[in-house]
Amino acid sequence: MKKLLTPLACFTLLLPFVLPANALAADDPAVNRLLASQCAQCHGTNGYSRNDFESIAGEEAKDMYEDLTDMKGEDRPENIMDHQALGYTDDQIRRIASYYATLPEDPESRESESSSGSGTLSASSSIESEEQDEKEMEQREERDEDDEEDEEDEEDDH
Amino acid sequence: MSLKRRTILQMIPAVAAMSIAPALRSQASHHVVVVGGGFAGATVAKYIKMWSAADPRVNMRVTLVEPRVAHVSCIMSNLVLNGQLKIRDLSFDYAALQGKYGVEVLQDRVQRISKDGPEIKLKNRGWLAYDSLVVATGIAFDPIEGLDDPRKTPHAWIAGGQTNLLRNQIRDIPERGTFVMSIPDKPYRCPPGPYERACLVADILQRRGSGYRVIVLDANNGIQAEKETFTRAFSELYGDIIDYRPLQRVVGVDQNSNYVHTKILTADGQETGGEDAVYGDVLNIIPRHGAPRLLVNSGLTDGGRWAPVDPTTYGSSLDRFPGVYVIGDSQATGQPKSGHMANAQAKICADAILRRAAGDSLDSDERLDNLTTNSACFSPINASEASWLTAVFRYNRDTGNMGLVPGSLGEAHNWNSENYRDMFSWSENLFADTFK
Ligand SMILES: Cc1cc2nc3c(=O)[nH]c(=O)nc-3n(C[C@H](O)[C@H](O)[C@H](O)COP(=O)(O)OP(=O)(O)OC[C@H]3O[C@@H](n4cnc5c(N)ncnc54)[C@H](O)[C@@H]3O)c2cc1C
Question: What is the pLDDT of residues B246-290, one digit of tens each?
C-alpha cells in the first residue's frame, strides 16, 4: 500500500529518522541488530523471507516505521502483526526500521536452499523405506533413553 | 580433579584464550560449546558465527554437541498424527550450520557438566573444555507410576519415533473407541499444543464415524492458551466427541488394563482427596516436565525444576557457573516454552556472549531497554484450518525479568484456511532461521 506523499508529509514522516539526533548518534548498532533479529522467526534471517511472508530487508525506513506505527493504532487488532507492533515502543520501531533499511533488498549472498533437512512437503519415498526409517528412529530413541539412565547412575566423582 | 581423565589437548584452547592479553584477542579463539541442537541450540550456534563474522575483534569457535544426526521439530508434529506431514518433513540436519556458518558439530551426548571447572564430559569423546557453555537441552519428563513402557503409551511430546507410534495407535483404534490424553501441570512446552492435539485427533476420529470419544484430562484449572478458540472448537466442532475435564492430575497408568488414574484437584491445584480412573483404547499421557537430568545433577537448576538465568544474557543466575548459559525450554524465566521463543532467547544469548568476548558492555541502558523476545504458535484446528497465538515480552529493569507487553498478547478471532496456509510460511521461515 504505497501512498503518494506531499513534500511536507515526507518531511514529517522522516522526522523520527532525522530529528532525535542525540538518539541516532548514540544508536549502538548491535542493539538495533539484536532487536531486529527478533523479526526473523517470521520474516527470515536478516529479513529475507523464503515464501509469501514479506521480506523486510532493504525496506525504506520511513515506510516500515509508518506501517508499524499505523498497526499499533488499530482499534481492534486483527492479525498477528497488529499485536506484534503493539509490543514495541516507537523508538524500538525506529531502530528496527533503520536496521533493515541498511540491508540490500536482494543480496547475491543469499544462498539457495541447502541440503539440510527437507522442511518442505515433498513427496515421500516408498512405504517400505519409510517403515525402515521409522524402525531405526525408534531404536535410536531407545538407545538415547538408556543413555539418560547412565547419566543418573554415574557417581559424582568429578 | 584428575587430569588423566580428560584429553589434555582439548583443554588448550580455553587456557590459551584466558591467558592472552585483550588486545590480541582476535587471534585467540573464544570457544563456545552448545549442548543440544534444537530450536534454542541451533539458533545460538548459527547467530554467534553469523554475527561474529562481521566483527574483526572476536574469533569465535563454536562446537555444537547433539546426539542425533538431525533434530525432529515438535513444531507442526501434530500434523504427523493426521498424516499431513511425515517426520522426515520435520527433520533438520546440521549441514547448513557446518557448511555455511562454520559450526563444528559433534554427534555425541553430554553426560556431565563439571562443577569444578569449565569443561563437560561427552559420552564418546571424554572431556571438552569451553570458554562459554550454552545448555539448550529442552525438557525431560517426571516418571508416572505404572507408565514403564513408553512405546506402549507414547507421550509424543518430543517428536520422532513416538509421534509415529501415536499416529499408528490412532489409526488402529477400535471402532467407536476412546482416546485419552492428559495435560501436565504448567509450565509445559507449547501451551496451546495439547488442545491443538485434542482437536486434530477429534477431527481424525469424527471423519471415521460416530461414537468415538476424546477425553482430555487437564491438570490445570482450565484451557491454558487460546482459551476462546479452543472453548469454541471443543463445543462447536467437537461437542459430540471431546470431553474436556480440567483439574485432573494423572498419578498412575495401568498399561495392561489401559486405565489412567487421576487425582481430582481444587481450583488452586490442591488435591481434594477425590480420585478417578478413566479407560482409553489409546492413551496419550504427557507427564510433567522439568529440565533434563544433566542440568539437575550438575546443580544448574539449584534444586528446582528449571535453571534460573539472568534474562539479559541467559547466563546462569548461580555464581558457581560463570560462563554457563541456559536457553530454551530448560530455563526458568517463565516466558512461554516455545520453539519460536527459544530462537528469540538464543539471539539475546548470542549477543551477550559476543559482547563478553569483545569486552563490550552488557548492561548499558540502551541495551537493557531494547531486550525483547516474542512468541507465535499456529494451531491447526482441523485438517484445513488453523488459529494462532502471539505475544511480545520486554525486559523490565525493575523486576529484572521479561514482562509481557500489554496489548501484544493476541489470539486469532477465527480459525480459517488463511491461517492454515500462513502456518506453513511461518514455520518454513522459523525452521530456516534456526537450522539453515
Ligand atoms: C506438539 C507440539 C507442538 C508445538 N508447536 C509449537 C509451535 O507452534 N510454536 C512454537 O514456537 N513451539 C511449539 N512447540 C514447542 C517447541 O517444540 C519447544 O518449545 C522447543 O522445541 C524448545 O526448544 P529447545 O531448543 O529448548 O528444546 P528442543 O527443541 O527439544 O531441543 C533439545 C535438543 O537437545 C538435545 N539434547 C538433549 N539432551 C542432550 C545431551 N545430554 N547432550 C546433547 N544434546 C542433548 C536433544 O537431542 C534435542 O535436539 C510445540 C511442541 C510440541 C510438543
Answer: 999 999 999 999 999 999 999 999 999 999 999 999 999 999 999
Is the shortest distance between the CB of B80 and ligand 1 below 6 Å? no
The x, y and z cell numbers of residue B113, run together, are: 557438566
Please give the CATH superfamily to which domain B144-284 belongs: FAD/NAD(P)-binding domain (3.50.50.60)
Tell me the average pLDDT of chain B. Answer: 94
Q: Where in chain B is the domain with CATH 3.50.50.60?
A: 20-138+291-371, 144-284
Tell me what pLDDT residue A135 has: 75
Testing ligand 1's pocket by substitution, the residue of B110, B188, B189, B297 carrying the most ligand atoms inside 8 A of its CB is B189
CA distance B78 to B164: 10
Site to substitute for ligand 1 among B338, B374, B379, most atoms within 8 A of C-beta: B338
Sign of CA dihedral A118, A121, A126, A132: positive
d(CA B307, CA B44): 18
Q: pLDDT tens for residues B85-101?
A: 999 999 999 999 999 99
| Of B50, B90, B49, B100, residue with least CA distance to A114 | B100
pTM of the model: 0.90
Pseudo-torsion of CA A37, B106, B143, B379, nearest 10°?
A: 30
Question: Given an 8 Å threshold on Cβ–Cβ distance, is B436 in contact with A113?
Answer: yes
Which ranges constitute the DSSP H helices of B193-328?
Answer: 193-208, 227-232, 293-298
Instruction: Tell me the pLDDT tens digit for each residue of B168-196.
Output: 999 999 999 999 999 999 999 999 999 99
CA distance B88 to B433: 18
Q: Does domain A9-106 have CATH number 1.10.760.10?
A: yes
Cis peptide before B187 (omega within 30 of 0): yes
- Which of B385, B375, B394 has the alpha carbon at shortest distance from B413? B385
- In this prediction the ipTM stands at 0.92
Predicted confidence (pLDDT) at residue B419 exceeds the cutoff of 80: yes
**CATH of the structural domain B20-138+291-371, one choice from 3.40.190.170, 3.10.129.10, 3.50.50.60, 1.10.10.10:** 3.50.50.60
Residue with the three cell numbers 554467534: B48
Q: Which three cell numbers stand for residue A74?
A: 488499530
